[in-house]
Amino acid sequence: MDNHFFKNVEKKTGVNMKDIFDLANSLQSANFKDEKTVRNVIRRVSQIANKPVSKEMEDKIVKSIVNEGKQLDFNTISKMINKK
Fold first, then answer.
1. Looking at residue 54, what is its pLDDT?
2. pLDDT: is 12 or 56 the higher one?
3. DSSP codes, the chain
4. Looking at CB atoms within 10 Å, which of 29, 45, 61, 71 has the fewest?
5. Using CA atoms, how far apart are residues 52 and 18, in angstroms rounded to an integer?
6. Domain limits of the chain?
7. What value does the CA radius of gyration of the chain take, rounded to a whole number of Å?
8. Alpha-carbon span 31 to 27, nearest angstrom
9. At residue 73, what are phi and psi to the nearest 5 degrees?
10. How much of the chain exceeds pLDDT 70, in percent?
């Protein structure tokens, strides 16, 4: 993709695109039935998005993904984080 496009996204969101790509690559082989893996992903997304996640919210997200089988993607986590 066009480097200019990514620079614009970085400027508008404050999120480093390299961090997003690194996270996306790490998710490809991740086991989302593993609680520890899911917690690490939530913490990493929280850090990248600069949105703190309380222990209670993290527990809810983990439960919905590990126990209830919800998909883990940025949109799902973002919606849950923003419901605070």
1. 94
2. 56
3. --HHHHHHHHHHH---HHHHHHHHHHHTT--TT-HHHHHHHHHHHHHHHT----HHHHHHHHIIIIIT-----HHHHHHHHHT-
4. 29
5. 20
6. 3-82
7. 13
8. 8
9. -150, 170
10. 80
Q: 54 to each of 31, 46, 59, how far by Cα in Å?
A: 23, 10, 9
Tokens for 16? 């480093």
The identity of residue 48, as a single letter, is I
Over the stretch 24-61, which tens digit does the pLDDT of each residue have?
888 888 888 899 999 998 898 888 888 899 999 999 98
* Residue among 51, 59, 56, 55 nearest 81 (CA): 51
Residue 60, token pair as written in the block = 């809810």
- Taking a C-beta distance cutoff of 8 angstroms, is the pair 45, 77 a contact? yes
- Given a contact cutoff of 8 angstroms between Cβ atoms, the answer to whether 6 and 17 are in contact is yes
